[in-house]
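Subgroup meeting minutes
Present: P.N., E.W., G.H.
Scribe: E.W.

1. P.N. recapped why we're keeping a running log of single-chain structure predictions: easier to compare across weeks, and new members can see raw inputs and outputs side by side.
2. G.H. added today's entry (327 aa).
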Amino acid sequence: MRWPVRVLVLAGLVVLAVFLVVTYREHQAQLAAQAARDQPVVAPSRLKDVEGQAMLVLDTADIARLGLRTAALRSSSATPVRRLAGELIPEPDRITTVRAPIAGRLAVAEGVHWPAFGDRVSPGGEIAQVSDARPLVVPRGGVVTQVGAQPGEMVQAGQLLLEITDYDRPLARIAWPPDAPPAAPEVELALATPGATSVRARLVGAAPSADPVTRLPAYLYRAERTWAGARPGAAVVASIRDRAAPSRGVIVPDHAVVQWEGLTWAFLERGAGRFRRVRVPIDRPVAGGFLAAGEVAAGDTVVVQGAEQLLSEEFRARVTVGDEPGE
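Output recorded in log:
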């Protein structure tokens, strides 16, 4: 082999070696980057041990970001409110039917509206006529709960034309547990939904049968008026003042209470930027919150806005990104 050929072969080998080294290093760099991406991302924990107690320690920026607001707790002697479950029940004697007096064609006078399902009708007005029979009159006002025929149709004698139900003063059956106070002459009645409107209801008497769900003795209460959603079958809550229950403590606002693992909690501020989660029983509800004692006392500062964010902040370090269940 002549000299120029040897030079070319050596140069080629050098280039190949450099290429292999560069390729190897790039591959190693890619493997390292992939390994870094596969590492679980652990959120920094702001939960610290402060004088033997677990507390969230936040700076001013964190407090502003979470939108926290606090309020001082005051002692109270409010009478706790007991909430008892119940149901609005149907009343057959408050249902009125309008039937065809004879066979013939159903007709309405000009300008008269034939009611539809859900319409409210007033008593006393003439609404229709079947053939040459006397005009039909609504004997009792209420809400139309069934429509059996339409104007222009042929109807049979005795056929149901309208069913009208009076919902003006609903009747509630309230289950009464043995540890509850005696049946009160008056209660506050509301649908069993958050923020529901409440109305006063007066005691009618003991129900003729036990509550079908709990099998507890029950009492009947007549609401002084109707309200949105008050229909037979609707679940309701009756609120009574339990004067036999302890009435000393502090009132923890209801919007300061959070739920976790089936228990209820609130966050107390223990110094600047330090927050501690404490148990708050909700078995003694009062207007605007819950009457509590034990871990909370008059003068304590409680978080009234942002408690849910604090709960998330406390447990966010448990969440990792990149791990799959079972790995």
